[in-house]
Design a protein that fits this description.
By secondary structure, the chain is an alpha+beta fold. Helix content is 37%, strand content 27%. The strands form four sheets. It has an eight-stranded mixed beta sheet, with helices on one face. The chain has a seven-stranded mixed beta sheet with strand order 17-12-10-11-19-21-20, sandwiched between helices. Strands 9-13-14-18 form a four-stranded antiparallel beta sheet, covered by helices on one side.
Length: 364
């Protein structure tokens, strides 16, 4: 059993010993521990089998079922989570993906922190040369790669994927484990302990990916799939702490943001064309709101509607009130910082294409 204290405000108790509970504790390993004798705000548990339900709705994104004392949400992979009507007790399938259940757990945390004018934003955050930057974007736009490129020689990090912001331009760190997948290791092979043969194999595989596309002709497609299934040295996706990945950098739990940068990931962009440009503040706020909806809030809105349909609750109104407060924080935050776009290449191998040095030239 582990009790974690999110921003010294929300205590979450992870109970039991199961793959999903252990994965969640590993994912939130950088969050401060709380005294387990404290009364928790939120409790997370797990069970083996889905309970019997008496009614279900199939939504566009998830399946929703009614259990006597909770909403059961499941996905196509048979992961499920049971949420009570107060959103303070969560029961997960014992081997569910932590990525599936954290959307709902973090909503319960976000609802409590919104009353302190704290909103979660989809950004990596760093501090270098006495300036604090947030890099915002949807998944796979380069938040992690940009952060790793700029901090390998030192500096401070606030988070890899999400951070907490306040309307006055303050950012609070969110020290989560970083999910490092094949694309990350291809871009930063120095983070993988490979033999010389594996390094050559990775170089050759990356060359093939960069020159043969599955959308091309027959021969090009054949080469692409041979590479994907037989040549590419698959690196297992795993959670890593930023402390281990960036030994010369340190975690910073609070800072004043100087620049908010919206990432633009462009295929086949020449590294010499990496550029940073000002963006109107209203456009910046609109994009943050859209990305937050795409990444998290669309799922939560559907769950709120399902809960109202299956139970006598007021979840939709509560969700809409939350979103109104969150959007107001985003809009005020954007007014208090400088806003830019940063166009970067979408490629598997940053170090081979001189992207790291071009980024460093842009920020140092």
């Amino acid at each position: 059993m582990v009790m974690l204290d999110f921003l010294n405000s929300v205590k979450v108790h992870f109970k039991g010993d199961s793959p999903v509970i252990n994965d969640l504790i590993n994912y939130y390993r950088g969050i401060d521990r709380a005294n387990e004798n404290n009364e928790p705000d939120i409790v997370i548990k797990s069970i083996q089998n889905k309970p019997k339900t008496d009614w279900y709705i199939k939504g566009a994104l998830r399946r929703y079922e009614r259990k006597k004392d909770g909403l059961v949400i499941s996905n196509s992979k048979e992961d499920f989570i049971i949420i009570n009507n107060n959103w303070d007790e969560f029961i997960c399938k014992h081997d569910s993906s932590y990525g599936f259940v954290r959307y709902y757990i973090e909503y319960a945390i976000r609802k409590r922190l919104i009353n302190q004018d704290l909103a979660l934003i989809h950004c990596s955050g760093i501090k270098i040369n006495n300036k604090t930057y947030l890099f915002h974007g949807t998944r796979s736009t380069g938040k992690t790669s940009t952060m790793l490129s700029l901090l390998q020689s030192g500096g401070s990090y606030l988070g890899d994927d999400r951070v907490w912001i306040k309307p006055d331009g303050i950012v609070h760190g969110y020290d989560l484990a970083t999910k490092m997948g094949q694309a990350n290791f291809n871009s930063f092979p120095e983070l993988v302990d490979n033999s010389n043969l594996e390094t050559l194999q990775l170089d050759f595989s990356t060359y093939l990916y960069n020159n043969f596309d599955r959308s091309g002709g027959f021969i090009e497609k054949v080469i692409y799939f041979i590479n994907k299934f037989y040549i590419d040295p698959k690196t297992e996706e795993r959670l890593e702490s930023l402390e281990d990945l960036l030994p010369l950098a340190e975690y910073k739990n609070r800072a004043v943001v100087d620049e908010l940068i919206l990432l633009r990931s462009v295929p086949e962009l020449d590294p010499n064309e990496i550029s940073k440009q000002k963006i109107p503040k209203n456009k910046c706020a609109e994009e943050i709101i859209s990305v937050t909806g795409f990444e998290w809030n669309d799922y939560l809105e559907e769950a709120s509607k399902a809960q109202d349909m299956l139970f006598d609750t007021d979840s939709v109104n509560e969700f809409n009130t939350f979103i109104s407060k969150e959007n107001e924080i985003f809009e005020n935050f954007v007014r208090s910082v400088e806003s830019y776009t940063l166009t970067v290449p979408r490629t598997r191998r940053w170090y081979k294409t001189n992207i790291k040095s071009k980024l460093r030239d842009e920020f140092f």
